[in-house]
Amino acid sequence: MTTSDPALERAAIACAGARKAVALTGAGISVESGIPPFRGRGGLWEKIDPMKYAHVAAFENDPAEVWKVLFLGISHVLEKARPNAGHQGLWRLEEMGVLQTVITQNVDGLHQQAGHRDVIEFHGTHAFVRCSVCGRRSDWRSVPLEVIPPRCECSGVLRPDVVLFGEMIDPRLLQRSQQLAAGCDVMLVIGTSATVEPAASLPVIAKHSGAFIIEVNPEPTPLTHRISDVTLLGSAGEVMEQMASMVQRLRSNRQPS
Ligand code: OAD
Fold first, then answer.
1. Which atom of ligand 1 is nearest to the CA of 40?
2. Model confidence over 147-203: pLDDT tens digits?
3. In what order do the strands lie in the sheet with 137-139?
4. Residues annotated catalytic, as ranges
């Protein structure tokens, strides 16, 4: 991908003219921060079976095992992760007044760390735990981890405040995300395999409502050619850095001095 790439130019022109762009991000945007994706080579689901460790039934059946294999493993990786050029490029679009909201399937908090104000954590967050009995929510860092699984004061088992397989998306977040998808003028779809519903349908809603869809991914996905108007084949860091710079140039040329 170079700055003279016509696809990058088309995407940048669409972004430069946008007033209410929305981003949908997935695990791929955090790969350059050292967090492995779920699917594909080196993906988490290649190492562990999600139905055995990331399904709500597995957690209910053996919470200690799910804590040991999944939750503590993820937390170890997230501790060291910092936003990368992909997150920063997206943040520059928000600073320029192009991007309104980030809808992320990620639980790593890196968009907020990059500076974004309005982030919808579609699959929850690893920064908090909640009690599986009384629902009380608390900071992950306050949880005593000497005994696994950790327990709430009410003796209920604690768990990260994330969505497991077999669980519903928070209906308020789902409704707001669908409204944003239906109302945006540009949707940036970055680093997601677009295979997990209902997140995968958000670009479809946006497209059918008239939005211009820009996809950023090193590999084609089910959205490529069918839903995406432009697919930028590259890493989020490389593409978003170039895109933000190009959008900035286009917007400053446009404004009277
Ligand atoms: P996936 O692991 O399914 O897909 C990651 C995508 O990122 C793939 O399409 C890769 O090609 C792409 N990718 C890899 N490296 C990249 C890079 N450097 N820059 C940009 N893209 C890159 O992750 P998600 O689509 O986020 O849900 O997965 C969706 C959901 O499935 C997750 O939120 C999680 C998982 O099961 C739950 O746990 C509920």
1. 2
2. 999 999 999 999 999 999 999 999 999 999 999 999 999 999 999 999 999 999 999
3. 137-139, 124-131, 158-162
4. 123
